[in-house]
Every structure is written in structure tokens, then in C-alpha cells.
Amino acid sequence: QPSQIGYNHQCPYPVKHYDPQTNVHFVSKGNHRHRRVPPPLISNLTSINSRTPSKRGSPSSDPDEEDFQNLTTAATRYATSRFPFQPFIVRFDTEQVNLNQFKESIVNHFKSSYQAEVEILNCRTSKVKCNNNDIDFLLYLKNSKSFALLYDKLNWPLTIAGKEFTFPSWPSIPPQLSVIIKNVNINIEFEEFSNEVKALVHDVINVVRMNNKFGNDIHLVKLELSSTSTRQDLLNAKKLIVNYISYDVIEFLSPATVLICSKCSGIGHFRTQCTEQHETCKTCAQAFSDLKNHRCTADPVCKHCSGNHLSNSAKCPVTIVLFPYNRKTERDTLSSKMVNTSAR
């Protein structure tokens, strides 16, 4: 039987309750003028992690569940179909070099000069950013060992297929050659910290303080390396002692990009797989038969959540909740798959 305990004439009377199914005791304050709803018991609760049975039959017939599975499949395909590394772009001022000559020259040079096997994943040409007779060769590598070998410009030959060349741009160091140092004080003298790290780990190319989405410094520091073996040694050690302070070392996983259709702004498929007949304006979220004739001047409104942002924004709360590739756990899983695949 619940008991009542009076405090004074100004305070309501608290009433003790006991739920035998959960073995929980709780107190609710009684009030003669206002009837309050008592705390919920376990018999009235439904787990938020369990799906409500479908009225149409088995859970597998629920379209929401099917959409969820389709998003996951499309996201995984998108993550694993991209090249694992940025290409090395080599520019010639003549079109007399073909793809086979280019690849053979690269492979033979590193095999004879460094006794190293360069594994090429893909190679193609482009004239998009070229002038006159210039032509770019885009070289995609298969693993991080090959990438690290070619990342040092001193390792490249003076000529390729007998022709001189230049580098119009240079790729950034990928996650497969990076690690993260945790819990680095924001107020530390960062230049001194960087120099100390480079003195301890000779294969460090860059020491980068990480930032949050607002551009503020955070307690994570990224080390960009030139050696796959050094990276693995750091991950195996799990620690790095700098100026008598021990820091945790973990794998660096780059942020993933949400897959959003450029035609309908839908989530989880490409434009080529889109089944919508009309294109959707990413600003006003309205569909048009010919989007080229639409000049939108409206304020942004999201197609998914009606928020004041573009429909293809990766920060939309709907994409964060429904699209597993944008969730940290799935993002880390997929990124790890990409790292492991490219490191082989």
C-alpha cells in the first residue's frame, strides 16, 4: 500500500510507489488541485529499439525497412567503388606518349632503381585543364606502399617514355598513411610539439592540428607519414611519448560523404538510378519538368526535414538518422574496409 508523508500545509503530499516488475521505487507528489500523471510502468512501455509489428504481416514487408536496407547497400557500394587514393597527375607538352608507354616507364623505373613493384589500379588521360598540345596522365595506385614510394618526387625519373614532364598539382596524403594523436592540449606550443614529433618519428611529413566544423582547434593531431611500416609501428605501439607525456595513437578515418541524388535530392542512390520523372530544386524543394528554366529566389527549405538548408545538405538531421553511411559507426566501418582493402 502506498504511504503518504505530509511536509507542511504549503507543499503537496509525496506518494511512494513501487513497481514489482522493475524493482524500482519512485515518489510522486500528490496535489488536491492538480491531478498529475504518475511515472510510466514497464507494462506501459515499448522499447524504442524494437520495431512495432507491421499491420500488413511480417516485418520484412515493411517498406521503411526495405528502404533502410537499400540505403545501406547503396552507401556501401558508393564507399567501396571510389579509388582509394588521389591520382598523381603528370603533364606532357606533347601527345606522343600513350598510356601503355607511360605505365611501362613508371613500373620499369621503380623496379630497376628501387627494386620495388608499383601496383597501378587505373590510368587515364585528360585535357580538361590543359592548353594547346598539353595532356595530363592521371595515375591511380592500388595500395599505400606504392603511393608512398611515388609521393617522394626525388624517386621519379627525369623523363617518361623519353619525354619531359611536370606536375600541375600534387595529391594530399591519404588516411592510409596517417594516424591520430589524442588528447593534445590546445594551449600547448604547437610548433615546438611538431618539431619534437618529427624528431621522434623521422617519416612524419606534416603535423596537423584538427579542427571542428566551426574551425576551432580540438584535442586531436594528425600525423601524415611517408612510410606504411612507420604508420603500422605507431598503431601497434598505441602510444607516443612527447616531452615526457604519453599520448594515445589511433587510426585516422576520414569523414565520409553522404550519397544524395543530384536529380531528386533523394538519399541513397545516384542520378543514373533515379526513378523520378522531374528534377527537384535543391533550394525550394519543388519538382520541375525542366529545372534549367527555373530561377529560384526562395529561401532554402529542405525536402526531407523542411529545415532552412539545402535539400542535398549532409548536415540534414534526416540523413544523419536514416542514412547509416553518415553515422559514425557505419562511417568508421566503411572507411576501415577501404583502408584495409587498399593496404593489401
Describe this structure in words.
This protein folds into four domains: 1-33, no CATH class; 88-155, Alpha-Beta Plaits (2-Layer Sandwich), CATH 3.30.70; 176-251, Alpha-Beta Plaits (2-Layer Sandwich); 271-337, no CATH class. With 344 residues, it is an alpha+beta fold. Helices cover 25% and strands 20% of the residues. 21% of the residues are buried. The longest helix is centred in the N-terminal third of the chain and has 19 residues, at 63-81. The protein has a five-stranded antiparallel beta sheet with strand order 7-8-6-10-9. A three-stranded antiparallel beta sheet has the order 3-5-4. Strands 1-2 form a two-stranded antiparallel ribbon.
Features:
344 residues, alpha+beta, Alpha-Beta Plaits, 4 domains, 5-stranded antiparallel sheet, 3-stranded antiparallel sheet, 12 strands, 25% helix, flat, disordered N terminus
Please outline what is shown here:
It comes from Rotaria magnacalcarata. By secondary structure, the chain is α+β, with helices and mostly antiparallel strands. The chain is built from 7 helices and 12 strands.
Task: Outline the secondary-structure elements.
Layout: E1 13-19, E2 24-30, H1 63-81, E3 88-92, H2 99-114, E4 120-126, E5 135-141, H3 144-151, E6 178-181, H4 190-200, E7 204-211, E8 217-225, H5 228-237, E9 239-242, E10 245-251, E11 279-280, E12 287-288, H6 317-322, H7 328-343
Antiparallel strand pairs: 1-2, 3-5, 4-5, 6-8, 6-10, 7-8, 9-10, 11-12
Region (Disordered): 30-67
Biased composition (Polar residues): 43-61
Protein name: Gag-like protein
